[in-house]
């Protein structure tokens, strides 16, 4: 009789442990994660040499097929003319699976090279339209870097057009 009691205790302990583990590890609150988040802008300001780039994005439309644009403001903070190149990178991350324990890694879907030549103290505004088809239902991240981003082979990354629309360039104020 003691062996039956011991077996029942072991089975009951195992069942309770399994229930507790299932409750603690079951993905909760995933309903909010199923909706793609608004695009995040990473590194809104980057300094490359004596040029400082500041990135701004307009609130993108949630309509399918809408194409956001990015505005870069470049300022030469140095005392001599300078040239600098910044890369705008759009990455997409698909929603995580409720049952997966593997984190979802972002993938690059679009890049654009922006090169400016500025006199000392001058500023220039660039408008960069993101003309790639952006994936629906995925979270987007827009970032800036000073190095050409690596693209995995066969990723199908689209590169932005070479002619960035330049806004007004302001000349430096004369020295007094």
List the helices and strands and how they pair.
Layout: H1 2-25, H2 31-34, E1 40-42, E2 45-48, E3 51-57, E4 69-76, E5 82-93, E6 107-118, E7 123-129, E8 139-145, E9 158-159, E10 165-170
Parallel strand pairs: 1-8, 6-9
Antiparallel strand pairs: 2-3, 3-4, 4-7, 5-6, 5-8, 7-10
What does this structure look like?
By secondary structure, the protein is an alpha+beta fold. The protein has a single domain, classed as Immunoglobulin-like (Sandwich), CATH 2.60.40. The strands form 2 sheets. It has a 5-stranded mixed sheet with strand order 1-8-5-6-9, with no helix packed on it. A hairpin with a 2-residue loop joins strand 2 and strand 3. The longest helix is centred in the N-terminal third of the chain and has 24 residues. The relative contact order is 0.20.
Main sheet record:
5 strands, mixed
Strand content: 35-45%
User: What is the rounded Rg?
Assistant: 25 Å
Choose one word for the global shape.
Answer: elongated
Output the helix-strand order. HHEEEEEEEEEE
Uncertain segments: 29-34, 161-168
Using the coordinates shown, work out and report the CATH topology: Immunoglobulin-like
Level-2 CATH architecture: Sandwich
N- to C-terminal distance? 103 Å
| CATH classification class | Mainly Beta
Summed up, the helix count is: 2
Q: Level of helix content?
A: 10-25%
